[in-house]
Specification:
This protein has 337 residues and is an alpha/beta fold. It is built from 17 helices and seven strands. The protein is elongated.
Length: 337
């Protein structure tokens, strides 16, 4: 079974330690969470001076790391060796040899960010057999609301759907930045009301609760022409608040999923549509139910083509001088009429 963040943390908290942890992948957040837990919890503070070492892959060879791993702890059950930026280490053969008979008193941690080991290599199988091989993958956009809700719930904080979407769409899937912003929101909450609202998001993160990508999409879904044009005018006059480059992916994603929803065998059933689109939120699927009432399949296909055209023009293709604001107005007019 592939290691997950939950299973790795469960075993660590139960003090079931492996001799090696190879943490790799494009999402640094979970790599940092696991390595930080090991650094802060395996040894007592008084044991760390002699038994905990942090190395950097650009400064050491694999042979030097293994020499360190072969030492025995001093007046402690374990020694911890953490190798950051492990992706910079070349020629990992010494690690493969060491793992044939690793010291059970050494906890060796590799933090390999922005990439992963080639799974065809024998080293991967060796690590997986004797230790923990964990790949931290980027969170998909559709999973962000669930991550935000769970993160806040663990801190005893609630959030409504609109606030959740505002945060997800304005910050994106960089989990380190996202959790930093969420922590800032938590600190700002009064003790007697631990719930995040759109107004708090606007005050603390700087995303307008009335003029944002979420509200623009909402206006388009419900064919609210006046509101959609209000939002477009606002962003045309306040380019720092948002741009066509942020809105185009948002709209494309919606209409792409709407096109898929039209092919759902039971498209009149919200639960079936949610399953068909692999959506975890029953609230979010309502936008697609409304979209299928307000747009035909043919119109949806035409909108997708138009979004592609506007995207190309926004990058200068077949567009000598039309500014981004005018391109966005052209797109919204096409969608709504």
């Amino acid at each position: 079974m592939a290691a997950t963040y939950s299973t790795v943390m469960r075993d660590l908290q139960a003090r079931k330690f492996a001799p090696v942890y190879y943490l790799m992948g494009d999402e640094a957040y979970y790599i940092d969470k696991i390595s930080d837990w090991i650094a802060e919890n395996v040894l007592q503070p008084e044991e760390r001076d002699f038994n905990q070492t942090v190395l950097f892959g650009s400064d050491v060879t694999a042979a030097q790391v293994i020499d360190m791993a072969k030492r025995y702890p001093m007046m402690s059950e374990y020694q911890v060796v953490i190798v950051k930026e492990a992706q910079n280490i070349r020629h990992m053969e010494p690690l493969e040899a060491y793992l044939q008979k690793p010291l059970t008193s050494t906890i060796l941690v590799f933090c390999h960010k922005n990439g992963a080991l080639d799974r065809r290599k024998r080293l991967v199988g060796v690590i997986d057999k004797v230790g923990v091989l964990y790949e931290s993958k980027k969170l998909k956009e559709r999973d962000l609301p669930a991550f935000i809700e769970n993160y806040l719930r663990e801190k005893g904080v609630g959030i409504d759907d609109k606030s959740n979407q505002l945060i997800a769409e304005s910050i994106g899937s960089d989990l380190n930045r996202l959790t930093s912003e969420l922590d800032k929101l938590i600190i700002s909450l009064p003790e007697n009301d631990r719930r995040v609202t759109p107004q708090i998001v606007e005050d603390q993160i700087g995303v307008s609760k009335d003029f944002n990508g979420f509200e623009l999409r909402d206006a388009i879904v419900y064919k609210n022409v006046f509101k959609a044009n209000q939002i477009i005018d606002y962003f045309d006059k306040n380019p720092k608040a948002g741009s066509i480059y942020a809105f185009l992916p948002l709209l494309f994603n919606y209409f792409e999923n709407l096109m898929i929803a039209f092919y759902c065998p039971k498209r009149n059933d919200p639960n079936e549509v949610a399953r068909y689109l692999d959506m975890k939120s029953s609230w979010a699927v309502q936008q697609y139910m409304t979209g299928m009432r307000n747009y035909t399949g043919m119109k949806t296909l035409q909108i997708i083509r138009k979004i592609r055209e506007i995207d190309a023009k926004s990058k200068g293709l077949d567009n000598p001088n039309t500014p981004p604001g005018e391109l966005m107005k052209e797109l919204v007019f096409f969608i709504l009429h």
